[in-house]
Amino acid sequence: MNQGRHICNELKALRRRIAEENGIPLETEECTYRGECCGTCPRCDAEVRYLEDALSRRLRMGKAAVVAGVALGLAVSTGVKAQNVADTIPLKPLATEIPDTVGKVRVTGVVLNSKTKEPEPFVNVMVIKDGEMIGGAATNFEGEFTILAPCKKFGEYEIEVSGIGFKRLKILINIDKKNKDNVELGDIYLEFSAIQLGGIVVTKKGYPLMDRDPYGAKGYVEYDGVKVIVK
Amino acid sequence: MTEAVPFIGIDRHRLGADGRGVTTLAAFHGCPLRCKYCLNRRCLESAEGLPAYTPEQLFKYLSIDNLYFIATGGGVCFGGGEPLLHSDFICEFKEHCGKSWNITVESSLNVPQEAVKAVVPVVGDFIVDIKESNLDIYRAYTSGDGSRAWDNLRFLLSVVEPSRVMVRVPLIKDYNTESDTAKTIAALTEMGITNIDSFKYLTDR
């Protein structure tokens, strides 16, 4: 078995373990590719993104997401190996370019759930000036974010914090000579968005009109055209 | 803010090769040494044509493996080339990845001490390629002065736990002998180093 296939098998086992620990449906299929493998492929990467989405959903539902240390025993060090990047995947130049600006301001903070006080991952945070987004980031598993916003002038800026199921939050900040390098917003609490529905009267029991399986009634979810089988 | 710096390669999904967990190796361009059997000679050539990243861009690029890093206690190993020529970059990168990614640095330590000092708060594990304790052999092999590397190693041990430092002692064909490596290992042990990796350099490239 080549090294790439070994890596692929180890990572597939890791994804399965994460899915099992968190009750996330995932069916990893046996890879039928028989050529030289680098250890990952679009399908493998799509499964990772599916797991991240599913974990984020669990957290928003108030459930625990077990990831840290799930597989500490995996990839146990077999000794330090000499670095050799000769066989690395060729690097593609990044499409994004950071334009020249007067300066960049580092904006940091931690987004928390106002009810549970727990960190909220995958929440979008944007820096907005004159209605235009100039920088943004998504929170990590600790709810932390760091944005390097290219601020061309001093004055008032808007920080917009949004996440599915939460009320959109807007914070006004003023950037001046004192804080032009670093703005620390500290803890930011998001409140649930409660939508009040009108009353309904149940007159007759019947079969559900649609499958409420959050992972996909079709049995798979798609990421960039790659299907991840969930059942 | 750190400008974009060139990289000679990025190697994902390394299992146990850079310490614990799943790691990605990000190899910087540039090195102060000229080792005869350097595995990554691209770091010594012109940087023209190499992709360049800012810390933020690199963090976003490597985030695809975030789940693996957290699940296994892994993260990013900075190598090269000489990663400590870019201490500011490493420190700023850590601001983006936070506590959940472990940062490892594989270095010769042949850099100004300020560069070592700068990364101590953000690097979890150091892999030190100390080459040789005999400074004449060191110079013959690397064209550099080894005393700075050894001074930095002593400094490093004064500020971090020995468990965070792994030192690699190579047997270098035509430059040192097993007797020489034994002396180097003895010197390291006396300094308090507990993790020593003794191995043979690859020379048939």
Which secondary structure elements does this structure contain, and how are they paired or packed?
The complex is a heterodimer of chains A (231) and B (205).
Chain A: H1 3-21, H2 42-60, E1 104-113, E2 124-129, E3 132-138, E4 144-150, E5 155-162, E6 169-175, E7 182-190, E8 220-223, E9 226-229
Parallel strand pairs in A: 1-7
Antiparallel strand pairs in A: 1-4, 2-3, 2-5, 5-6, 8-9
Helix pairs in contact in A: 1-2
Chain B: E1 5-15, E2 22-28, E3 52-53, H1 55-62, H2 66-72, E4 75-79, H3 87-97, E5 102-107, H4 113-119, E6 125-129, H5 135-142, H6 146-159, E7 165-171, H7 178-191, E8 195-200
Parallel strand pairs in B: 2-4, 4-5, 5-6, 6-7, 7-8
Antiparallel strand pairs in B: 1-2, 1-3
SSE string of chain B, helices as H and strands as E: EEEHHEHEHEHHEHE
Q: Which stretches of chain B are low in confidence, meaning pLDDT under 50 for 5 or more residues running? A: none
Q: Write the element-wise H/E pattern of chain A from the N-terminal end onward.
A: HHEEEEEEEEE
Strand numbers in spatial order across the main sheet of chain B? 3-1-2-4-5-6-7-8
Backbone shape of chain B? globular
Q: Calculate the mean pLDDT score of chain A and round it.
A: 73
Secondary-structure content class of chain B: alpha/beta
Percent helix of chain B, as a range, is 25-40%
Can you count the beta strands of chain B? Answer: 8
Q: Which strands sit side by side, in order, in the main sheet of chain A?
A: 3-2-5-6
| Helical segment count of chain A | 2
